[in-house]
Write a structure and sequence with these properties.
Keywords: ATP-binding, DNA-binding, Metal-binding, Nucleotide-binding, Repressor, Transcription, Transcription regulation, Zinc, Zinc-finger. The protein is an alpha+beta fold. The protein has five helices and six strands, in the order E-E-E-E-E-H-H-E-H-H-H. The longest helix is centred in the last third of the chain and has 29 residues. The mean pLDDT is about 90.
Length: about 160
């Protein structure tokens, strides 16, 4: 790490602390040449390989932007979108990969969007799961209905078990 004051090519770490969110490390450094102190922040980089082959850094804002289009006209707030993007970033970081395909990120969005809004989920899934016909939509809708039926059955069984 070059000193930002005298450009000396080395520095000594005096203190290291993890950020509140646990995603970065703040290091306090001192230059052995000029003696001045400065701070650095280190984060693990996550890059995305686009279909065109271009590599760029992961961006929560791009996740929000893509999902916002699917949520147009739906009762989804900006806070909901920000939380969804955070969950997606956590999920892709949990894979341990430093570089992901853009399509993998789109697929990581799906389970979180499904919980948020089923219509937006269908819109988004039609792109990322490459729906080609109405049968693809019918299959996705049937899956949503089956899962909703299971959830309803579990609620009924739970209520019967508690005497509600």
């Amino acid at each position: 790490m070059h000193c930002p004051f005298c450009r000396h090519p080395d520095s000594r770490v005096i203190d290291s602390r993890t950020s509140d969110d646990g995603l970065s490390i703040r290091r306090r450094r001192q230059c052995p040449e000029c003696g001045r102190r400065f701070s650095t922040t280190e984060t693990a980089s996550l890059t995305v390989v686009k279909r065109s082959g271009v590599v760029e850094p992961f961006s929560r804002e791009k996740v929000v932007s893509g999902v916002r289009k699917a949520c147009q006209g739906r009762p989804v707030t900006e806070a909901d979108l920000a939380l969804l993007a955070q969950h997606v970033e956590d999920a892709v970081r949990a894979t341990g990969q430093a570089q992901l395909e853009a399509n993998d990120i789109g697929l990581a969005v799906l389970p979180h969007l499904r919980e948020l809004d089923e219509i937006a989920y269908l819109r988004f899934a039609s792109v990322y799961q490459a729906f080609e016909s109405l049968d693809d939509f019918d299959g996705a809708i049937a899956e949503l209905r089956a899962d909703a039926g299971k959830a309803g059955d579990e609620r009924i069984a739970s209520a019967e078990g508690t005497g509600d």
